[in-house]
Amino acid sequence: MCQMFNVILKLKTFFSRNKKRYIISFFTMIASNIFSVLIPYIIGRMIDSIVKKQLTSLLLFKYTGAFLLSLIAAYLFEYIWSYYLFTGSAKLQRDMRLTLMQHFLRMRASFYEKFRVGDLMARATQDVRAISDTVGYGMMVLMNATLFLTTIIATMGVSVSWTMTLLSLFPLIFLAYLFGKVGNMVEERYTIAQKSFSELNNDVLEVVDGTRLIRAYAKETVYLEKFQKQTESMLKKNNQVAKANALFAPLVKIFITLSNVIGFGYGAYLVSRQNLSVGDMIAFQMYLGMIVWPIISIGELTNVLRQGSASMIRVEEVLNQGDDMEEKGSKVIASKKDIVINDLSFQYPTSTNHNLKNIEVIIPKGKTLGIVGKTGSGKTTLLRQFLRQYPLGEGEFKYGTDSVLNYQPTHFQSLIGYVPQDHILFSRSVRENIAFGKEGASDQEIMESVKIASFEEDLAKMDQGLDTVIGEKGVSISGGQKQRISIARALIKNPDILILDDSLSAVDAKTEQKIIANIQNERAGKTTIISTHRLSAVRRADEIIVLEDGRIIERGTHLELLEKKGWYYTQYLRQELKEGDEE
């Protein structure tokens, strides 16, 4: 039972908020049990009256009335406690999933490096359901079966014979010991099966996300065979759990049969010596029959508790895991300020070397910073520091004269409009995807952001215009269209700081220049940060920094960098030559 109490202790806040529900369940359960055990007692008294030839019409009417009253009362009280217990179980599922979702939304990138999405899905579904079963069915058995069993045993001892009761129940001591052994086996096997389910979830999500790539490389058969092997493995592990669970029912039948044999044999002996009436003997056998359900339920309770305990550990592991972000500040941002980075170095949790080294950048308010460099140079890593996706490294990151850590995170984040490399679009209409950037945005505001993102012509060609559903992750539109919808979504927010992370790679040079010109015209006086491989996108930037291996190796305006004839100059000539050849 310690597993049950551990789970209850960990859910004490939930039980505290819903104590009225469980108090009602407890007392109606006691009432139901009392009326249930009265039924064999009434039958026993009626049989004794028949044997002694004392049964009259009036007495028969009283016994029948008492029997029906007890039956109806037992039913009504059982309905009440069942309703309150199992609606409480459903409420717990809702609360736990809400808690998990809140946790998922608060966590930053480092958290998702430790847990894969499929694993989190498994914990938020099957594991939460197992905990809910513990609170619903588990609480029912713990409260009802134990109360019912205690009531029956007390009634057997008081109304029939304590000696006969203790002898009949002696085999159940060995049954309790075996329940503990089998329960340990269930918990161990269930934990293994849940881990297997998490792994399968992870792989299924990857296959669904990469299905077009898998088909392009004709790898369907390979992945199907892999999936079949995983499902076979999971089937075997779940079968092992089922085998352990299947041991409970036969054990109960064996030991309950022994109890019946002892009870019937000793009872017959007492009746023959006239120490026990026939009615008491029949009532006792009925009580033994009523014990079967609580004993079987306690066996199932062991199973539910073990699974619930294992699932609670898995859910707690997620909820207790933070993202290692720094303590939150309390200041509120009241005005636009310069962004100042002094001697900033950063290293990913899984990296062996620094990914950013001694970065020095000042972005005056309202200015544009360009960030360029070859693949893997640290451009996106630097932007992640702006976005506060990872803890700050060594050095200073200030907004104005205060560290960004001094401000409330929501205030600093509210300044930023972000367009990532991987464009996250929802399986909704174009309107809903763009309006995601600003709650309650009007169609006029949406169309203004569409115009700045140079998406007007594409939108006009769509059958339903703004109401066109773009499919999950934008599956029904091109890469360039995804990018421009993402840009429009960031622009409709009209952010003080706009961050474009290689967000124009899928559009042609002409469209790129049009979008950049629109952004600069519409965002005069606002800060813009552009990370890109295509140097033409940062030609108008107030300052451009060139990164290599996490260090700034060049900095200046477009013309100043060309005069230095370093990496920027060489790369610019190559790109100009390539664009000339394409033209």
UniProtKB/TrEMBL annotation:
Gene: yheI_2
Protein name, entry field: Putative multidrug resistance ABC transporter ATP-binding/permease protein YheI
Gene3D superfamilies per the UniProt record, alphabetical: ABC transporter type 1, transmembrane domain, P-loop containing nucleotide triphosphate hydrolases
Pfam families per UniProt: ABC_membrane (PF00664), ABC_tran (PF00005)
Organism: Jeotgalibaca dankookensis
PROSITE patterns recorded: ABC_TM1F (PS50929), ABC_TRANSPORTER_1 (PS00211), ABC_TRANSPORTER_2 (PS50893)
Enzyme Commission number: 3.6.3.-
Entry keywords, A to Z: ATP-binding, Cell membrane, Hydrolase, Membrane, Nucleotide-binding, Transmembrane, Transmembrane helix, Transport
Subcellular location: Cell membrane
Every ABC transporter domain range: 339-574
PANTHER family in the cross-refs: ATP-BINDING CASSETTE SUB-FAMILY B MEMBER 10, MITOCHONDRIAL (PTHR43394:SF1), ATP-DEPENDENT PERMEASE MDL1, MITOCHONDRIAL (PTHR43394)
Lineage summary: Bacteria, Bacillati, Bacillota, Bacilli, Lactobacillales
